[in-house]
């Protein structure tokens, strides 16, 4: 892939806005030839479009290399058939939605394009700072160039992992797409614990957040596995061992696999929503 991409993005909310920021900051896009559509764009999106030259809610039509579908899965049945850009002939559709399958999307787009090619991607919110992890699902309907384009887009926002198919993507989305919320829930929980011990809310959040960030930085820099680093924190017969034992008593070992399976079940429910 050598040429900058002309992109149209439908939806620039939480995740769409994060990806847009990563793409606008790099050299992946032909920004003057790209467009964002969102009926109520955030101030951040308005500013980003103004600064980068990306068009926001224009009335004029262009031809686009890629159309990113970034509305909620529940909005797909109403939004996709209404897309009114007639220049979708050769466009690759990239969906970031949980659950909704490539076949369902192609059906919803049947009035917009003949045999639409759909790549399903599951990004993560840290894409906003180019530290995302994106799952991409192989699809026999895609060409090698489609795969290259999809991979280049998601690499501009962090790491990529190709899944053999959509089923694998749905099974793994809890480990990637949802997991930032799981980690952040742990930060919230630790901050609450500090508050319960009499610390001010600001100091409680600061210590929980910095401990989380420091641990992530250590994991990144140190070279040891998470298990080895956990053991390095856990002095034999000490306080961490007591805390970990309490977590295990509460079923901690099972709770994350259970959460990943709950996300998968919800993805299946959202397919066809
Ligand atoms: N949030 C995340 O971390 C992740 C989300 N995803 C996927 O990303 C997608 C978007 O999720 P998220 O960003 O969280 O949701 P948001 O609700 O934040 O974003 C959706 C955006 O689409 C806008 N929108 C609604 N109708 C239209 C329309 N007709 N045309 C254009 N834009 C429209 C919404 O506007 P309004 O709010 O005014 O309705 C909103 O700004 C989902 O499919 C989700 O599964 C995937 C991975 C991670
Ligand atoms: O909650 C959701 O459904 C989306 C997909 C993964 C993260 N957020």
From TrEMBL:
UniProt xrefs under Pfam families: F420_oxidored (PF03807), P5CR_dimer (PF14748)
Residue intervals of the Pyrroline-5-carboxylate reductase dimerisation domain: 166-270
Domain Pyrroline-5-carboxylate reductase catalytic N-terminal: 10-99
Pathway: Amino-acid biosynthesis; L-proline biosynthesis; L-proline from L-glutamate 5-semialdehyde: step 1/1
InterPro entries: 6-PGluconate_DH-like_C_sf, NAD(P)-bd_dom_sf, P5C_Rdtase_cat_N, P5CR-like_CS, P5CR_dimer, Pyrroline-COOH_reductase
Coiled coil: none
Residues binding NADP(+), per UniProt: 10-15, 70-73
CC per GO annotation: cytoplasm
Domain of life assignment: Bacteria
Listed transmembrane segments: none
Catalysed reactions listed for this entry: L-proline + NADP(+) = (S)-1-pyrroline-5-carboxylate + NADPH + 2 H(+); L-proline + NAD(+) = (S)-1-pyrroline-5-carboxylate + NADH + 2 H(+)
HAMAP family: P5C_reductase
NCBIfam families per record: proC
Name listed for the protein in its UniProt record: Pyrroline-5-carboxylate reductase
Organism: Parvularcula maris
């Amino acid at each position: 892939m050598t040429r900058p991409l002309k992109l149209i993005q439908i939806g620039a909310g939480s995740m769409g806005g994060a990806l847009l920021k990563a793409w606008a900051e790099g050299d992946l896009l032909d920004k003057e030839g790209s467009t964002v559509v969102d009926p109520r764009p955030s101030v951040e999106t308005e500013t980003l479009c103004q600064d980068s030259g990306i068009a926001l809610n224009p009335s004029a039509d262009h031809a686009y290399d890629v159309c990113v579908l970034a509305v909620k899965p529940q909005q797909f049945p109403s939004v996709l058939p209404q897309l009114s850009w007639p220049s979708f002939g050769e466009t690759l559709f990239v969906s970031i939605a949980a659950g909704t399958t490539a076949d369902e999307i192609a059906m919803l787009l049947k009035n917009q394009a003949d045999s639409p090619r759909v790549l399903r991607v599951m990004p993560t919110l840290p894409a906003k700072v180019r530290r995302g992890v994106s799952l991409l699902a192989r699809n026999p309907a895609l060409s090698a160039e489609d795969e290259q384009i999809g991979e280049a887009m998601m690499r501009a926002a962090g790491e990529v992992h190709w899944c053999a198919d959509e089923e694998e993507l749905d099974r793994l989305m809890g480990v990637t797409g949802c997991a930032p919320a799981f980690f952040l829930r742990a930060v919230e929980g630790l901050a609450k614990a500090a508050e319960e011990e009499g610390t001010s809310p600001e100091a409680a959040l600061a210590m929980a957040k910095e401990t989380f960030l420091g641990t992530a930085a250590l994991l990144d820099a140190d070279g040891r596995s998470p298990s080895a680093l956990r053991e390095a924190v856990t002095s034999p017969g000490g306080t961490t061992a007591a805390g970990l034992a309490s977590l295990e008593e509460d079923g901690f070992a099972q709770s994350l696999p259970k959460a990943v399976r709950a996300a998968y079940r919800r993805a299946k429910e959202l397919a066809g929503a």
